[in-house]
């Protein structure tokens, strides 16, 4: 935590019983090691802070991840949740803030705050998992015209519907940025994984998924319904792999 804000995405994997909340949202931030900062002291400091204030017993749990690919590679992602927006109305004690300053801000710069809410209509999550120790997060910047978001959501939903028909043994959780920002990061597709060998045949979706998609939805449908839609209605995307520090 810090003074009041935290936030960035999201997202991840461990079976979790939600305390009667109607939606799943995560708050988090990126932590960039300061010049002269020590990795071991930062990681130890975050663990101490999380154990004291974010252990999941008296409020939402917090996690620390190494960011291994993408524009923030070499940094950390501090993630808290699941939470609700009302959680942000709670006041933070002075000792809580001071502990964050001493154990975290002393060693790292916090930046790129984001709140990410899971879109259950687009999510394929057969084992009802919420937080995972290793994830691939594919982040899309959706264009700004009125039909762009609608088109992208349609493409993503068609993938979910195909995964359902295939009874696929992978999960793909979809998160939306709760608040529009200059950096965008509008939609994130979160794929949990256990081994890096997963990426030898596919980044996220099951191997040969495009072929299976065409068999179910018609020849050429993958290119028409997904590839061209994402090319035409987004400003690109990137993959970010996160691995939890335990």
Structure description:
By secondary structure, this protein is of the alpha+beta class. It folds into two domains: 25-118, Alpha-Beta Plaits, CATH 3.30.70.100; 134-244, Alpha-Beta Plaits (2-Layer Sandwich). 28% of the residues lie in helices and 26% in strands. It is built from five helices and eight strands; from the N terminus they run βαββαββαββααβ. The protein has an eight-stranded antiparallel barrel. Strand 2 (62-67) and strand 3 (76-83) form a beta hairpin. The longest helix is centred in the middle third of the chain and has 19 residues, at 148-166. It is elongated and about 60 Å long. The two termini are 18 Å apart. 36% of the residues are buried.
Radius of gyration: 19 Å
CATH C-level of the largest domain: Alpha Beta
In CATH terms, what is the fold-level topology of the largest domain?
A: Alpha-Beta Plaits
Distance between the termini: 18 Å
Which helices and strands occur, and which strands form pairs?
Elements: E1 25-33, H1 39-53, E2 62-67, E3 76-83, H2 94-105, E4 108-118, E5 134-142, H3 148-166, E6 173-177, E7 187-192, H4 209-217, H5 221-233, E8 234-244
Antiparallel strand pairs: 1-3, 1-4, 2-3, 2-8, 4-6, 5-7, 5-8, 6-7
Helix pairs in contact: 1-2, 3-4, 3-5
Structure keywords:
elongated; Alpha-Beta Plaits; eight-stranded antiparallel beta barrel; 246 residues; disordered N terminus; alpha+beta
């Amino acid at each position: 935590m810090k003074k009041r804000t935290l936030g960035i995405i999201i997202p991840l994997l461990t079976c979790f019983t939600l305390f009667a909340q109607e939606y799943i949202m995560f708050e988090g931030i990126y932590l960039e090691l300061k010049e002269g900062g020590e990795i071991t002291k930062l990681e130890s400091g975050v663990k101490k802070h999380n154990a004291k204030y974010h252990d999941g017993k008296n409020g939402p749990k917090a996690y620390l991840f190494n960011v291994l690919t993408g524009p923030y590679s070499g940094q950390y992602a501090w993630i808290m949740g699941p939470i609700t927006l009302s959680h942000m109305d709670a006041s933070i004690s002075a000792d809580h803030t001071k502990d964050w300053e001493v154990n975290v801000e002393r060693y790292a710069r916090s930046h790129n705050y984001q709140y990410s809410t899971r879109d259950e209509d687009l999510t394929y999550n057969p084992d009802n998992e919420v937080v995972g120790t290793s994830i691939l997060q594919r982040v899309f910047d959706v264009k700004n015209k009125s039909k762009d978001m609608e088109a992208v959501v349609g493409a993503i939903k068609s993938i979910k519907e195909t995964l359902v028909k295939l009874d696929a043994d992978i999960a793909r959780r979809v998160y939306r940025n709760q608040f529009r920002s200059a950096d965008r990061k509008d939609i994130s597709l979160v794929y949990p994984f256990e081994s890096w060998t997963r990426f030898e045949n596919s980044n996220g979706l099951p191997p040969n998924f495009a072929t299976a998609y065409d068999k179910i939805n018609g020849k050429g449908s993958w290119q028409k319904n997904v590839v061209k839609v994402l090319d035409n209605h987004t400003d690109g995307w990137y993959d970010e792999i996160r691995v939890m520090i335990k």
